[in-house]
Design a protein that fits this description.
This protein is an all-beta fold. About 0% of the residues lie in helices and about 45% in strands.
Length: about 280
């Protein structure tokens, strides 16, 4: 009697998708989505979809008596764009909102989901070790204003006021009708507004963020000086405002004021993958 041997191969997910996964049987974080302003010739129209691993941009502008909008900024035309630009032309994503009177409230918000765009998995932040990187640059703001970004569950994007709809984490600069906060702040699950201790007046060259999930509702946020990327300004360990995956980001500028445009750039998502083996006969 003759027996035919059958080969048994051990294959990892890494072998199937190449550069998108770590080597065989090795855990690690993998860049699964990224975009930056150097990919664009304009910015401000819903449906723009450069980069990889992210949904298309959705833009909402509400002038409400003033002026608001979004544009592709560069260092040649924007003297206040200092350290977060990318590409030979020095580009970044710019947002403006300024009013003409005390009753005006111009605002703009820009939304992007962490969905499927040629990548193998949905790229939301859902597991410990999943990580998002982003750069932001802003100067002073007017009274009764705010600017920043929110990481959200779901992707509500129907108006400029949806920027914090489903927000589990929010970072920004804020002011009341009488006082401009001296430092950047965070809203998360801690309750109320949390002072980061980073003064905007001495960090107008921009900030680089590395946001990492550490549990189902906990995170670690490292904030660096964008003009000196190796300089860690603070490291915040805290709790999200809820227990759900982070599915989208919203960038917002709410009546920050004339000459105080806000800039963003260099978004990346890194997913954590444990060692993965399966058998194929």
């Amino acid at each position: 009697m003759c027996y035919r041997a059958r080969a048994v191969y051990v294959i990892s997910v890494a072998m199937l998708v190449g550069v998108f996964m770590p080597p065989l049987a090795r855990a690690g974080t993998v860049l699964v989505a990224q975009d930056d302003a150097s990919n664009y010739t304009n910015w401000g129209v819903t449906g723009l979809d450069e980069g990889v691993g992210l949904d298309a941009w959705v833009f909402h502008v509400t002038p409400e008596g003033g002026f608001a909008g979004n544009y592709l900024a560069d260092t040649n035309s924007q003297a206040t764009l200092n350290s977060i630009e990318s590409g030979a032309a020095g580009k970044a994503w710019g947002m403006y909102a300024n009013g003409g009177g005390p009753s005006d409230f111009p605002r703009t918000a820009v939304f992007r989901g962490f969905g499927y765009n040629g990548s193998l998995w949905a790229n939301n932040l859902a597991n410990p070790g999943d990580r998002l990187k982003l750069s932001m640059e802003s100067g002073a703001i007017a009274l009764s204003a705010s600017c920043g970004f929110a990481l959200r569950s779901g992707n509500a994007d129907f108006s400029a006021d949806d920027y914090n709809n489903g927000s589990l984490f929010e970072f920004g600069l804020y002011s009341s009708p009488t006082v401009i906060d001296p430092n950047f702040s965070i809203y998360d699950g801690s309750g109320g507004k949390v002072d980061t201790g980073i003064p905007w007046a001495t960090h107008q060259d921009g900030l680089d963020f590395t946001f990492t999930l550490t549990g189902s509702n906990t995170y670690d946020l490292a904030i660096y000086d964008a003009s000196s990327p190796s300089t860690l300004l603070t490291n915040i360990v805290s709790t999200l405002n809820g227990n759900a995956p982070l599915d989208s980001i919203a960038l917002f500028n709410r009546d920050v004021g004339t000459s105080f445009d806000v800039f963003f750039n260099k978004i990346e998502i890194h997913k954590y993958y444990p060692p993965t083996l399966f058998m194929v006969k």
